[in-house]
Design goal:
The complex is a heterodimer of chains A (about 280) and B (about 210). Chain A contains eleven helices and no strands. Chain A is mainly α and about 280 residues long. The chains are: A mainly alpha (about 280), B mainly alpha (about 210).
Chain lengths: ~280, ~210
């Protein structure tokens, strides 16, 4: 081993981290080379000198007292900060413009669902009564309006005619076919039914909800976790209401109240999703 | 090893309390036990303040930065990944704190001064007066030599020579690769050797 090589390795040798492969050659070189051996001794004296280094610093009780005081202060500040954050969140929950619509929507929609069920039950009862009155030859409001031109039965043994939407109003000529209806009757017949209107509106709501949902999903991570949980809970309530209301509408397609509340539920869902989108942008 | 070093000079009563493992102390401190963090400070306060003092060279500043180091450690106890490496983690914080201070605080002189009288006061009293005087002078020379090293070399030299940290530990503390820190250490030793060479003569042999 050359002296230059030994000089490089001698530090690791003295530090005790020299690998086994180099250990033997370094030892042999130190035993045979006076120059490198002297360098090693000088290195050892250096370490001794460093061990005598005295610093102008000590750990004092005052030092710990200062640290302890600061830690306690940090705790107070951390607690105050947490309380302040909690206060802001609570304030937002009950009074803030960003939280209240979502929760109000959820509450309103739940109320709507209950109302729809009640109204449906009432409608069913009304329809049963109407049927009973018709069977008892009690004049219907439509028949009463036609008192000047009483409808004659087409055959003597024909029973009382059931009023039908559109056809009853347009059948001033008694035995006229549909192709011979008056222009006013044609206009009425061309108008979309409430059910068609509702379905159209529903499609628009569903498209808007789909777009907003994609946007919300992209930015979910930017929302405050607590706020996100609240929004998700509100959306869950609204979705359940939509499902229940939809079922009622399917069972009673002509029920205007059920249809109205179905659309209201969709509207509330759009509102909540918009709130979430606005929250992620802030 | 750090535990053994920090136990020097501790009373026997305190030694008993220091037998707690680092993991146990950290767990207790995380649960909010003040005494546990106090024991961590008792164990590591001395090496940490020495290291910071070697980095900044001023007693008041070293005390202030040691405070900052332990306060940061307390605030970040939950972020520690490996509880078995408490001392390495503390030295890492201390290194950052010291470096921030060196970068942002204006220093009056590039070289580190020395308050002569206090060194004598800190001597153990068992050495003869001439030896005390010698060590005082030598300490001043070492301190000046340390202050003349650049920051990277000073960190590595201090951790290796004064704190007896392994290469792996120094690599973790500094974030440097082992080859780089070996190079820095070699150069730092050479610079220090050149500065203290006059004191390696016969009169300074032990």
């Amino acid at each position: 081993m050359k002296c230059e090589e030994c000089e490089v390795l001698i530090e690791e040798y003295a530090d005790g981290v020299l690998d086994q492969k180099s250990l033997g050659p370094v030892r042999e070189h130190l035993a045979s080379c006076t120059s490198c051996s002297a360098f090693h001794q000088e290195w050892s004296r250096e370490q001794e000198i460093y061990s005598r280094y005295q610093r102008d610093v000590e750990v004092t009780p005052l030092l710990w007292s200062s640290i302890d005081a600061r830690i306690k202060q940090e705790r107070v500040e951390a607690r105050d900060g947490m309380l302040a954050r909690l206060r802001i969140q609570l304030a937002g929950l009950f009074a803030g413009p960003r939280f209240s619509p979502a929760f109000a929507a959820a509450l309103v929609v739940i109320a709507i669902a209950i109302t729809v069920v009640v109204m449906t039950l009432l409608n069913s009862k009304n329809q049963r009564e109407l049927l009973a009155r018709s069977n008892g030859n009690i004049p219907t409001p439509a028949a009463a309006a036609d008192e000047g031109n009483p409808i004659k039965p087409s055959t003597p043994d024909a029973g009382p005619k059931q009023p039908e939407m559109g056809s009853t109003v347009a059948s001033s000529g008694g035995g006229e076919t549909a192709s011979k209806k008056s222009p006013a009757a044609k206009l009425v017949a061309a108008r979309p039914t409430p059910d068609q209107l509702v379905r159209e509106a529903e499609q628009k709501y569903l498209a808007a909800i789909s777009m907003l949902s994609r946007d919300v999903n992209r930015h979910r991570s930017q929302l405050d976790p607590i706020m996100l949980a609240r929004f998700d809970a509100a959306l869950g309530d609204i979705d359940r209401t939509i499902k229940d209301t939809r079922r009622v509408v399917n069972d009673n397609p002509g029920d205007p109240i059920a249809l109205q509340y179905l659309l209201a539920a969709y509207s509330k869902k759009v509102d909540v999703l918009r709130e979430m989108t606005a929250g992620s942008e802030n | 090893m750090m535990e053994a070093i920090s136990l020097v000079g501790q009373s026997s009563g305190r030694v008993g309390t220091l037998m707690n493992s680092s993991e146990e102390l950290i767990a207790r401190a995380r649960r909010g036990e003040d005494e546990a963090f106090r024991l961590i400070f008792d164990r590591y306060g001395r090496p940490v303040i020495s290291f910071i003092y070697d980095m900044v060279g001023q007693r008041d500043l070293a005390e202030e930065l040691t405070q900052e180091t332990f306060v940061r450690a307390y605030k970040n106890l939950n972020n520690m990944r490996d509880e078995t490496k408490l001392s390495t983690w503390l030295f890492g914080i201390a290194k950052n704190v010291a470096r921030e201070s060196l970068r942002y605080k204006h220093r009056e002189t590039d070289k580190i001064g020395i308050d002569d009288d206090r060194v004598i006061e800190l001597s153990d009293g068992k050495l003869p007066p001439d030896r005390q005087l010698l060590d005082k002078e030598l300490s001043g020379v070492i301190k000046d030599a340390l202050g003349a090293l650049d920051e990277d070399k000073r960190v590595v030299f201090t951790l290796k020579v004064f704190q007896q940290r392994s290469y792996e530990e120094i690599a973790e503390i500094t974030g440097s690769s082992i080859p780089k820190l070996k190079t820095d250490l070699h150069r730092a030793r050479a610079e220090m050797r050149r500065r203290i060479k006059p004191y390696l003569g016969v009169g300074y042999e032990v």
